[in-house]
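Exercise: predict the fold of this chain.
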Amino acid sequence: MNINQATAPSLSASAIAAHCATSATHVAIETVAETGSTNADLLARIGSLPGPLLRIAGNQTAGRGRAGRSWLSKPGAALMFSLAWPFKGPLHKMSGLPMAVGVALAETIGSLGVPVQIKWPNDLLRDGAKLAGILVETQKTNDAIWAVIGCGINLLMPDELETQIGREVASAPWLAQMDRNQLMAALLSRLAAVLAEFDDTGFAPFTERWNALHAWQGMEVVLLDQGEVTQQGRAAGVDAIGRLLLDTDAGRVEILSGDVSLRLSGAQP
């Protein structure tokens, strides 16, 4: 497709707020045409935020994914936002947060007519290719643990961008036809409800929902750390704190999320 078709759409804080459900009415909303990284923007302001804040950009020039990877996009081709949210903690209870966020976004996107699955810990896949990435970064203050939840969803995929990325990626042209403000409001409303529940209960109530969306359930996978295989076995979902369950020749092992990569056995790294 021609990149001229993917010009940045109009984003309006008031329009997003007008479409939000009650769960998100207390979230402040900012829109910007362009920034380096919405996650970095919010992390720099954690100490001065009075409450939850959504920051959405028409374009990010220095977007980041897990393990410091760059998130590449073009103006208007993706929905890119970050949400700063305070939690009661304690910190160890936060381990399942990325998985809960994945559930919230996958369920919302699915309800809008684009079925997706989750690759552990929280990449969203459409037809086996990556549609969206999530990056959760935490910062402790005197009275709360703040999470900055960044998300990039590929709505359109210009040919030159896919070439630049260098691998097959998914897009969601159906969602690209929606008003971006309504789409953002739907995602924010579900996210806010899930985050409030997670703060009270942790990940346990989301375990079954995550496993129902698991892309590689029962499939042979390998776990990579800096390109080296550290574990391999059959993916068996996640447990009540968000650890990946892997059935290996030596028995079942639990894997905590970190700077590791999960691949299907035999797939290119």
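Check your answer against the key: Confidence is low (pLDDT under 50) at residues 1-8.
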